[in-house]
Amino acid sequence: MHKQSAAVFDRFLGALSGLLEKAEAHCAARNIKPEAILAFRLFPDMFPFTRQVQLTCDFATRAVARLAGEEPKSFPDTETGFAELQARVAAARAYVATFTPERLEGAAERAVTIRIRGEDVTMTGEDFLNLYALPQFYFHLATAYDILRHNGVDLGKRHFMGAA
């Protein structure tokens, strides 16, 4: 489960850090106020870029904690700039790194209960990871990526995949 969760989250949080670097450089090179991207939404009922980054971090950190049978650490949503978002990603990666393979032993079979739309839902750790946590994580990461692409940041699939 470690390889399917913590290792995956770390790689893609690293990719998110790279996306933030590209976005900040894009703003500086084109004399764009960072707030134009940080507050950008793909559609009015969707979260802005900053919240997409926060949620990407949250789904990673909360998932590994729940898989370990622990209460997730809370990260306050106070970021207002690229440097603060980078710090959030770094803090999330550091937290995820504390979940060693030993700490996640038995996670696949462990019961995980979360609240979805006001209802408690219990599933195995494996189902929680594959059917809830990873899809949520990738949704918010992809949305952050899409916001940057929509705003002209020079990105490709390799940046999303963490290979650039």
Number of strands: 2
CATH superfamily: dinb family like domain
Overall residue-averaged pLDDT value: 97
- Main beta sheet: 2 strands, antiparallel
- Which architecture name does CATH use? Up-down Bundle
Beta fraction: 5-15%
Strand order of the largest sheet: 1-2
Uncertain runs with pLDDT below 50, 5 residues or more? none
Secondary structure class reads mainly alpha
Secondary-structure element string: HHHHEEHH
Nearest-angstrom radius of gyration?
16 Å
Fraction in helix: 55-70%
How many angstroms does the end-to-end distance come to? 26 Å
Give a description of the structure.
The protein is mainly alpha-helical and 164 residues long. It has one domain (6-160): dinb family like domain (Four Helix Bundle (Hemerythrin (Met), subunit A), Up-down Bundle). 57% of the residues lie in helices and 7% in strands. A two-stranded antiparallel sheet has the order 1-2. A hairpin with a 2-residue loop joins strand 1 and strand 2 (119-124). Helix 1 (6-29) packs antiparallel against helix 3, helix 3 packs parallel to helix 4 and helix 3 packs antiparallel against helix 5 (125-150).
Descriptive keywords:
164 residues, mainly alpha, Four Helix Bundle (Hemerythrin (Met), subunit A), 2 strands, 57% helix, elongated
